[in-house]
Design goal:
Distance between the termini: 78 Å
Helix content: 25-40%
Low-confidence stretches: 327-332
Number of helices: 11
Number of domains: 3
Structural class: alpha+beta
Largest sheet: 6 strands, antiparallel
Radius of gyration: 35 Å
Strand order of the largest sheet: 1-5-6-3-2-4
Order of helices and strands: HHHEHEEHHHEEEHHHEHEEE
CATH architecture of the largest domain: 3-Layer(aba) Sandwich
Mean pLDDT: 78
Strand content: 15-25%
Amino acid sequence: MPGDILSQNEIDALLSALSTGEMSAEEMKKEEETRKVKVYDFKRALRFSKDQIRSLTRIHENFARLLTTYFSAQLRTYIQINVASVDQIPFEEFIRSIPNMTLLNIFEVPPLEGNIIMEVNPNVAYSMLDRLMGGVGEGPGKVDNMTEIETKILTNLFERSFDNLREAWSGIIEMDPFLSEMEVNPQFLQMISPNETVVVISFNIVIGESSGMINICIPHVVLEPIVPNLSVRYWMQTNKKEPTPEQSIILEKKLKQARLPLTTELGKGAMSVEEFLYLQVGDVISLDRKIEDPLIVKVGDIPKFTAQPGHLRNRMAVQIIDILNGGDEDDE
């Protein structure tokens, strides 16, 4: 089990103690040998492995890039969003860490069961609202007195933003997120039990001269059905699967029923526009192919066969006499 990482101040203090003789290297070694017990907080049960946390980080780094493009287009100003941290904590700790009055967008993400939360700092929310209303991107930063119009404007903005989450998660699962409700007081949230583990993805967002945080809270129970898909093995493996024999038979039948345009080229000719304008019924057009030369049969626009003209049951027809290898046109 890896040891704790020391800060620079702690390292300097240890070096100072060794140089002054307050502590010897042997005493430090004995102290390290006696420390065989590590405190574990059962209230902070780690439900996700480091590998899975890295996968969640990659997904939401892509989400941050998509959000940057989306909000820049909607607010018509400089926007920068990046992932600050990805942590797994109890739900109760998440509720305590956010302001008493903030903007809480609660989304459902079918086919997954449960809700996820997008918490938007009041400074960020009102900067966005000010930009949408034609301002420079500044706001009072209070959400306890939002009007119905302000609520509707922000609801539409954040609801459309979660279309980008669908794209960010498309490599793992096809979800269809939609906004179910909006709250301003985290004490009213009764989604899951306080001790339930959640993943909190924190984003730093800069809007012009304003900055703040956006947090996305995803309970473990929501991700539990797809947790195995968050491993590196799943990311590295190809999604391409060989068709079953039944699928191959069906595919072959469908291909055989496909219709393709088949044309026979008698030859090519050239004339002036004036000659073309005076063409009449019975006029003869001189072509570049001799009468004894084979004709070219094309499938679509690709030459595939040579043929000779003739009649079949009183109708004009061609008889295939050879196959053109590689589909290269040969008019000689």
